[in-house]
Design goal:
GO terms for molecular function: dipeptidyl-peptidase activity; serine-type exopeptidase activity. Pfam families: Peptidase_S28. It contains 20 helices and eight strands. By secondary structure, the protein is of the alpha/beta class. It folds into two domains: 1-35 and 221-412, Serine carboxypeptidase S28, SKS domain (Four Helix Bundle (Hemerythrin (Met), subunit A), Up-down Bundle), CATH 1.20.120.980; 54-216 and 415-502, Alpha/Beta hydrolase fold, catalytic domain (Rossmann fold, 3-Layer(aba) Sandwich), CATH 3.40.50.1820. Helix 10 crosses helix 11 (245-262) and helix 11 (245-262) packs across helix 14 (308-318). The longest helix is centred in the C-terminal third of the chain and has 30 residues, at 473-502.
């Protein structure tokens, strides 16, 4: 391997900018809301991915550029990608349901192999599976531009937001139902992480289109006001501490050790050699940001099969060196791959950033605003001026300051639970408490039909991944509960439909 940056891919790249330690040249590193890291698809194998994709057909819909005004240029259209799996569908004549997966901040082709929950459960309901790509990702970029070109133009990137995306999804679902003559087929929208937020919001904004929503690991309570959120890194630290107190303390002490070495003559050269970085370090923050990203990624995807936190901590604890830095590097090797004479660790973001990184950076400055912060109650060094740095990054990158209260205005703010209780229904919020983003999730039932399903040992979007024989009982039960709830929604719908037809 020539570098190890690609192991976690866009997630690692997208972590931690807006912290006071990060240089202005780096791309946005706020934790990404991807369903799974790149390593998941690598471990799943090409044969499995190819098998799933072979069951699908790809279509393109002429999507409206701007759903919310009537200027002539708003009537422009772009090719919007959606994918259908017909394999399990019972057909329009039986009003068989539609599972609509709402894509998040990546090409939909990357989502399809990751969300095995849909193909696992479609046979039970004889459901059609519809995957819809998010505008400005994958093959659904307006204007015939690359995403980078679109984001560099203020006239084009202004069409890139969650409200336009939800309207896109509504248009595609209606189009597909009309195309298949399936107007009576109930639709359940599903999504994971940011896509889970979209699914919940879709049920609120378009209840006449979606019978219900399944929102997995959706931190829907985070982007509701412009204040620092400390819960993410608190849960990251908790995961490490519960795994190993020794590992936790070693990591906590390592930051001052890095600063101490970096302050000495030739200190940065020493750190470069110790951590085998591909390029010489220009400051200690480059290394620290890389490590914070690595720890956060391990905690977010700390599933019971790969146990990345335990693997990292075992390496740190078993290293026989008396040097804290050598112990930390052992954790890097265990997590990011073995180090050889021909390999190195590329701790700086690559110049050619992925769509996820580019798009998520913009979305964090437009409407998905989540200033995550660190305090002295974690294993990390506290950061400072989080909000100031957040605003300055957005101004520097896009010439705008975030609109911090728009999400609250459009979808509901801190009182969204009260709002949902009064008029919402048929939403499942699922979470795993090992996931740092569960800090922003709904963890208690809001009503009889807006329910929270969570597990103490679950990680980010774990319930959306395909079931396997290795699944622990608690994960099996979580998925069974979710499927049972959706089954009740569909059963009630069919009863209502029959009464309407008989009347």
């Amino acid at each position: 391997m020539s570098s190890t940056y690609g192991l976690f891919g866009p997630l690692l790249l997208s972590l931690l900018l807006f912290s006071s330690s990060t240089s202005a040249s780096h791309l946005n590193r706020i934790p990404s809301l991807r369903i799974a890291p790149d390593s998941f698809l690598q471990d799943s194998g090409n044969a499995v991915t190819e098998s799933i994709l072979n069951e699908t057909q790809t279509f393109f819909f002429d999507q409206t550029l701007d759903h919310f005004n009537y200027m002539p240029e708003s009537y422009a259209t772009f090719k919007h990608k959606y994918v259908i799996n017909f394999k399990y569908w019972g057909g329009a004549n039986s009003s068989a349901p539609i599972f609509a997966f709402l894509g998040g901040e990546e090409p939909v082709a990357q989502d399809i192999p990751a969300v095995g929950f849909l193909t696992d459960n479609a046979p039970r309901f004889k459901a059609l599976i519809l995957y819809i790509e998010h505008r400005f990702y994958g093959e659904s970029i307006p204007f015939g531009l690359s995403l980078e070109e679109a984001l560099n133009n203020s006239n084009t990137r202004g069409h890139f937001n969650s409200a336009q995306t939800l309207a896109d999804y509504a248009e595609v679902i209606i189009h597909v139902k009309r195309m298949l003559n399936a107007q009576k087929s109930p639709v359940i929208v599903m999504g994971g992480s940011y896509g889970g937020m979209l699914a919940a919001w879709f049920r609120l904004k378009y209840p006449h289109i979606a019978l219900g929503a399944f929102a997995s690991s959706a931190p829907i309570l985070l982007p509701v006001n412009f204040t620092p959120h400390y819960g993410y890194y608190t849960i990251v630290s908790k995961g490490f501490r519960e795994t190993s107190e020794t590992c936790y303390e070693t990591i906590k002490r390592s930051w001052s050790a890095i600063d101490r070495v970096a302050s000495k003559q030739h200190g940065l050269q020493y750190l470069t050699e110790t951590f085998n970085t591909c390029e010489p370090l220009s400051n200690a923050s480059e290394l620290k940001d890389y490590l914070i990203s690595m720890y956060a990624t391990a905690a977010q995807y700390n599933d019971p099969f790969t146990t990345p936190v335990a693997k990292l901590c075992d390496a740190v604890n078993s290293n026989g060196s008396s040097s804290i830095l050598n112990k930390i590097f052992a954790g890097v090797v265990a997590t990011m791959g073995n180090s050889t004479n021909s390999s190195c660790y590329d701790i700086t973001p690559p110049r050619n950033a992925s769509q996820t990184t580019l798009g998520w950076s913009w979305q964090n400055c437009s409407d998905i605003i989540m200033p995550l912060a660190r305090n002295n109650k974690t294993m990390f060094q506290p950061d400072s001026d989080t909000l100031h740095n957040y605003i300055e990054y957005c101004k520097r990158s896009y010439g705008i300051a975030p609109r911090p209260h728009w999400i609250s205005t459009y979808y509901g703010g801190q009182d969204i639970k009260l709002t949902l209780q009064r008029f919402g229904s048929n939403i499942i919020f699922s979470n795993g408490l090992k996931d740092p983003f569960s800090n922003g999730g709904v963890l208690a039932n809001i009503s009889d039909t807006i329910v929270a399903v969570y597990t103490a040992k679950g990680s980010h979007c774990l319930d959306l991944i395909a079931a396997s024989a290795k699944d622990p009982d608690w994960l099996v039960k979580q998925r069974e509960t979710e499927v049972e709830i959706m089954g009740r929604w569909i059963h009630v719908y069919y009863n209502d439909l029959k009464e309407l037809q008989d009347s």
